[in-house]
Amino acid sequence: MHFFGDLLTATAYFLIPLALIHLFRKRNDLAFNWIFMMAAAFIFLCGVTHFMAIINIWHGYYYLSGIAKLATGIVSIMTTIMIWYLLPRIIAIPSNQEFKVKNEQLLLTQQKLIESNQLLEERVRARTVELEKLAHTDALTGIMNRGGLMNGLTNEMDRATRYKHPLTIMMIDIDHFKRVNDEYGHVQGDNVIIEVADILSKVSRSTDSVGRYGGEEFLLLMPETETVKAKILAERIRVDVANHHFCHEEGLDISVTCSIGVTEFESNQDSSSLLKTVDEMLYKAKNSGRNKIIVNNNIAA
């Protein structure tokens, strides 16, 4: 029994250091390799003592057995000292549970960062849309400004050309507006412009685009509309403006009229040519006594 017990124990003690050496060769990233080497030496010497015990069954090599035990004791003490020296550093290494908690915290932080970035991107997009809208909005009236009108006109001309649909534009100018400013002041003049813009916005259709072209001039873009229908809308605008009482102070009654030029887009025109034509129609309306509508009838068939 002693023979087989020592044989099995010695075999195990010899194989364990081999396993550790194999581990070190495959995993050179492991820390404290020298501690493992000391442990391997300790285990190996333990195997030697058991091997000597087997030999001493038949031979009395007690001197060699004593040397093996002494070497084992020395290596054991050295290994113990090293382990106690490194114990605080080993304890400081995070456990798997701590790693798991830290990893969950990192994932949570990462998710919050992703959500914050998404929220920031949404705010940037919303702010960009808002700035673009402000860039194309008239500060006084809240309708489109000249820049917005020009972008809209270009898009509508492209669409009319592509789909062979009619496009009519209307230019409206407040008659004798300078007199309003001179008699009632610029504040009242601004109020008149605001209310005329409000009339145009209410009269125009959802598919139309209305904007302040400059000063007291307005432009109305009417896609899929021929001059016959546009003239009906122009007449309604003219009447509504003429019948409107621009009263902003007690005892104050301001009335204005407007002149309107109307023309239909032709496929061979660019935006400058189209605006020039409608401006000429407006000029004719003013020269005809104002409070008039002039439609361009020289449209190519």
Automatic annotation (TrEMBL):
It holds the Pfam family GGDEF. InterPro entries: Diguanylate_Cyclase, ETR1_N, GGDEF_dom, Nucleotide_cyclase, Rev_trsase/Diguanyl_cyclase. Residues 165-298 form the GGDEF domain. The keyword Transmembrane applies. Keywords: Membrane, Transmembrane, Transmembrane helix. One of its GO terms (molecular function) is diguanylate cyclase activity. It catalyses: 2 GTP = 3',3'-c-di-GMP + 2 diphosphate. Its EC number is 2.7.7.65. The chain crosses the membrane at residues 6-24, 31-55, 61-87. This is diguanylate cyclase. The lineage of its organism: Bacteria, Pseudomonadati, Pseudomonadota, Gammaproteobacteria, Thiotrichales.
